[in-house]
């Protein structure tokens, strides 16, 4: 299965923790950007995909008309008749009923809402411009518009956050039949407002770990499987598009700053809105050809993020050859000896106690 990703860089305001490529304002360029994405899509000539994901930025800022034109252009450029899942991200302050109806009428069957928290003080300190009420209204609206597959983002470790406030967020979301939750631990990334001036009331590292562990227990008790390091889902509601990433599958990304991985080649577009609009076909700035050993190690590292699947060395050996897999198995067995991985036959999985400290394990496997 191959995935198609569309990056929409527009946003109303830059969140204080955000290091993704997004552009506050410049909404007057939305129509030109939509046209540019369609031009780039046509260069791929009728390729087919199993999943579609429109992310950002804030895709809901496109508005109904541009969204309709974008999706019509994608259906014209590609063969999307076999789409298993089509997701669009939206923020509570900009989603409207008309936008949701256009999305659904154009084949979007999954929505991911940037809730982050249902505590107004936490939202304000994070630079979010919606309120808890607005987030609840947006969820209700999505359900009224017929969306049965709804995901919500939640951040653990926001300034001033306590288990009481986090539990309230999780209880409300699960009570509203949200079927998927992406639960991210806040990290301070270079170049963000938080990096320049860290809030004084950020939970400490141990506090953040405790909050996440309590959130994991809470969600598992309510039927959510912890299927990826930062993702929980009710049965059958895992994000198929992201599963393709974590299984080492191929994907094409369209739009400014979008990345692609096709036939052992990894490349991305320049993170410049105006430059992309001027020449989407010439936006590619980086290309890397992965050698088999590098692709093997990367796929193993990504698969270990899948907490219930892990990496099966028999399957990988069938693809890459036993000789190339030997070094990987040696590294995996070393992590088993350190009780950082669990071995079940030919399958390796992250040890449950290492989910919050997985980076060092994944880095060792990638090496």
Give an account of the 3D structure.
The protein is an alpha/beta fold. The protein contains 14 helices and 17 strands. The protein folds into two domains: 3-245, tm_1862 like domain (pyruvate-formate lyase- activating enzyme, Alpha-Beta Horseshoe); 292-367, Arc Repressor Mutant, subunit A, CATH 1.10.10. α6 packs parallel to α8 and α12 runs antiparallel to α13 (322-337). The two termini are 27 Å apart. The model has no long low-confidence stretch (mean pLDDT 94).
Instruction: Give the rounded overall mean pLDDT.
Output: 94
Walk across the major sheet and give the strand order. 9-10-8-7-6-5-4-1-11
CATH fold category name of the largest domain: pyruvate-formate lyase- activating enzyme
Helix content: 40-55%
CATH class of the largest domain: Alpha Beta
Supply Rg. Answer: 21 Å
Overall 3D geometry? globular
**Main beta sheet strand tally, sense and closure:** 9 strands, mixed
What distance lies between the first and last C-alpha atoms, to the nearest angstrom? 27 Å
The structural class is: alpha/beta
Low-confidence stretches: none
> CATH H-level name of the largest domain... which superfamily?
tm_1862 like domain
Number of helices: 14
Number of strands: 17
């Amino acid at each position: 299965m191959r995935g198609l990703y569309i990056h929409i860089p527009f946003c109303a305001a830059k969140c204080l923790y955000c290091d993704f490529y997004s552009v506050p304002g410049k909404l007057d360029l939305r129509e030109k950007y939509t046209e540019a994405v369609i031009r780039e899509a046509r260069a791929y000539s009728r390729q087919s995909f199993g999943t579609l994901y429109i992310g950002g930025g804030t895709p809901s800022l496109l508005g109904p008309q541009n969204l309709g034109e974008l999706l019509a252009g994608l259906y014209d450029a590609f063969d999307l008749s076999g789409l298993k899942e089509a997701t669009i991200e939206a923020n509570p302050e900009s989603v409207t009923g008309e936008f949701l109806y256009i999305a659904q009428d154009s084949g979007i069957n999954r929505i991911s809402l940037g809730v982050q928290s249902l505590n107004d003080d936490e939202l304000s300190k994070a630079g979010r411009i919606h309120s808890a009420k607005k987030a609840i209204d947006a969820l209700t609206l999505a359900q009224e518009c017929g969306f049965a597959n709804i995901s919500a983002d939640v951040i653990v470790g926001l300034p001033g956050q306590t288990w009481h406030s986090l539990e309230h967020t999780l209880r409300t979301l699960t009570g509203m039949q949200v079927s998927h939750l992406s639960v991210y631990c806040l990290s301070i990334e270079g170049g963000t407002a938080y990096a320049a001036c860290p809030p004084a009331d950020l939970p400490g590292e141990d506090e953040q770990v405790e909050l996440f562990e309590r959130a994991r227990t809470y969600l598992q008790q309510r039927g959510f499987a912890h299927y990826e390091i930062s993702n929980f889902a009710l049965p059958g509601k895992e994000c198929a598009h992201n599963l393709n990433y974590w299984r080492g599958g191929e994907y094409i990304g369209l739009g400014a700053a979008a990345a692609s991985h096709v036939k052992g080649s990894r490349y991305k577009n320049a993170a410049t809105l105006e430059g992309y609009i001027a020449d989407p076909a010439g936006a590619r700035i980086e290309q890397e050809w992965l050698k088999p050993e590098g692709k093997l190690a990367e796929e193993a590292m990504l698969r270990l993020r899948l907490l219930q699947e892990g990496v099966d060395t028999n399957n990988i050996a069938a693809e890459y050859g036993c000789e190339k897999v030997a070094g990987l198995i040696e590294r995996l067995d070393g992590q088993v000896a350190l009780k950082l991985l669990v071995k079940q036959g030919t399958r390796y999985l992250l040890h449950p106690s290492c989910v919050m400290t997985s980076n060092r394990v994944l880095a060792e496997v990638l090496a």
